[in-house]
Amino acid sequence: MADQNELDEAKKYEKEADKYNASQIQVLGGLEAVRKRPGMYIGSTSSQGLHHLVWEVIDNSIDERLAGFASKIEVTVEVDGSVRVEDDGRGIPVDIQKKTGRPALETVFTVLHAGGKFGGGGYKVSGGLHGVGASVVNALSTQVKVTVMRDGKKYEIAFDHGRVKEEMKIVGDVPETQHGTIVHFYPDPDIFTETTTFDDKILKNRIRELAFLNRGLKLTFTDKRKASAETDVYHFEGGLNEYVRFLDRGEETLFDDPIYVEGDYEGINVEVALQYTTGYKTTLMTFANNIHTYEGGTHEAGFKTALTRVVNDYANKAKLFRSKDENLSGEDIREGMTAIVSVKHPNPQFEGQTKTKLGNSDAKTAVDRSFAETFSRFLMENPAVARKIVEKGQLAERARVAAKRAREVTRKKSGLEIANLPGKLADNTSNDPSISELFIVEGDSAGGSAKQGRSRLTQAILPIRGKILNVQKATMDRILANQEIRTLFTALGTGFGGDFDVSKARYHKLIIMTDADVDGAHIRTLLLTLFYRYMRPMVDKGYVYIARPPLYQVRQGKIVKYLDTDEELHDYLGDLQPSPKPVVQRYKGLGEMDPEQLWETTMDPENRRMDRVSPEYAADADAVFEMLMGNEVGPRRDFIEDNAKYVENLDA
């Protein structure tokens, strides 16, 4: 019998093997591969991927600036939601490309890896390394229209879903001095199913960032979707120095002007701007060819190495260390620092098309040597400032040692042992972080309902009592002395501070679930401050969420409706029949919901609503956190006074 089964299996295998031939190998022609797997080219088809289309077009215009030909870039969101990007660069070439036999303008928008960035002499430095930017934008748009002005002529070409709709033609004459490129595109809703609406804040933040990184370049932004379509102009002659001042606005600094370094090493241009504040926050932003490298890379490593070495060398030579003192760690020296590192590399090696990490080893050497020499000279010429930097590092070291002791306490406890702590963790049963969720719930009462109503396989519950410490103005030893914070980090399994490792996170959804009142908003803000300052990789990975429990329940007979606002309640009640009489319940807190209601409205993946905390708003969030949670009272008072009208409206 066994032999017969083996024979049957062999025949089945041969039959299936015969079917698997060349006809089953699918070859995606043109830009079909991009439409089939868009995430491979733009990261995702969410809002982040949607905005990546704009970055790709702007990057091409920026490359013209880096090549020395563009002085202004205009970005416009049209009334219909499409985007138009115009520059005054040389204009995309329009002559015939030998390999394709088609105009270069058409080739750039229809052929992957076609562009002037592959050693052909078109660009010495560029941000769009992979050369797929224009063609990917074309592939993922319903319509693209490109206008080129060069050599006294105006050319146009139009595309539909990545294919040529109207071939390139001359549509008029222009002055010889007029040159540049206009790209006008409409994102495809079949690709971007989540949203095709561009966020003006995200666009403005990136455009402003590019203006800081390219001193003297004029960028404008106009949103015609708004009734008053004003044009915002971004133009900074001070470059990175102005960027550092912008990031440190409202902060007390250790010295007047940021330290600025610019140098070249074997064809790599290096710029660094550095300032220290009296606070504890560290801000280090790195860029490669204007691309924000969120995950750092070799240029960041070179800066950190040089900074640590130079400060310790100075402190030893100036005898600022006691004989028994060891050198300061890099983490100690960087406390309170705001620094921006920008390199322009002729052949950057990024990790993936979305370019979040630089891998060139020579970038590390370039930044190290360029920065170390100038910074060392600055410390020698400014001994009072140098002493302040060293003393600040020594204070950070003492706090770090105290924090290490507190951290050792968290390391000794496993997730299960947290059940003995005041913040009781009800863990989920799955060991797969990708499906595991941790609900941080305000209060033991709501925590009890959440534990009873949850899905035990995927959902863990961690109740917290009261308000955690405001970490915006606290040292690390004080932070880790807070029991609720220690409990949270132990539950996550990520470690803390310099030991933080997001890859060890036991949950890939961290969901804040607080009451819909002032105290709940305060607790949520305190938690967000903690995540932003000390768990930033969790935010960057998209792991942090805010639950949106309803404010009202309306029951009319067997029909139950949950509503979020007073306006929704008013409108809904106005549409109901008078009989039977509707019963309205206002939830003063999560604890008033029974387990079934909490599951149905806030925890059920099929019905719940959550807001994901996005890193795109990092610059704005940083400013708001500093204003609302920092030591400066004046800006916070001004904010309250400016927004007091909202409180008055509620009472009206």
Overview features:
652 residues; alpha+beta; Heat Shock Protein 90; Ribosomal Protein S5, domain 2; Rossmann fold; eight-stranded mixed sheet; five-stranded mixed sheet; 21 helices; 23 strands
Description:
The protein starts with a helix and ends with a helix. The chain folds into 4 domains: 32-234, Heat Shock Protein 90, CATH 3.30.565; 240-404, 2-Layer Sandwich (Ribosomal Protein S5, domain 2), CATH 3.30.230.10; 414-549 and 587-613, Rossmann fold (3-Layer(aba) Sandwich); 620-652, no CATH class. The chain has 652 residues and is an alpha+beta fold. The protein contains 21 helices and 23 strands. It is globular and about 75 Å long. A hairpin with a 7-residue loop joins strand 9 and strand 10. Helix 4 (47-66) packs parallel to helix 7, helix 9 (298-317) runs parallel beside helix 11 and helix 9 packs across helix 12. Helices cover 39% and strands 20% of the residues. An 8-stranded mixed sheet has the order 7-6-5-8-2-1-9-10.
The total of beta strands comes to 23
- Estimated share of beta-strand residues: 15-25%
- Total domains: 4
Describe the main β-sheet briefly: 8 strands, mixed
Helix content range of the residues, please? 25-40%
Per CATH, the architecture of the largest domain is 2-Layer Sandwich
Radius of gyration: 29 Å
Explain the layout of strands and helices.
Elements: H1 2-19, H2 32-36, H3 39-42, H4 47-66, E1 72-77, E2 83-87, E3 96-97, E4 102-103, H5 104-110, H6 133-139, E5 141-150, E6 153-160, E7 163-173, E8 180-187, H7 200-213, E9 218-223, E10 231-234, H8 240-247, E11 259-265, E12 268-276, E13 283-288, E14 291-292, H9 298-317, H10 330-334, E15 337-344, H11 361-381, H12 383-411, E16 437-442, H13 444-453, E17 459-464, H14 476-481, H15 483-492, E18 509-513, H16 518-534, H17 536-540, E19 544-547, E20 552-556, E21 559-563, H18 566-575, E22 583-586, H19 595-603, E23 610-612, H20 618-629, H21 633-651
Parallel strand pairs: 1-9, 13-15, 16-17, 16-18, 18-19
Antiparallel strand pairs: 1-2, 2-8, 3-4, 5-6, 5-8, 6-7, 9-10, 11-12, 12-15, 13-14, 19-23, 20-21, 20-22
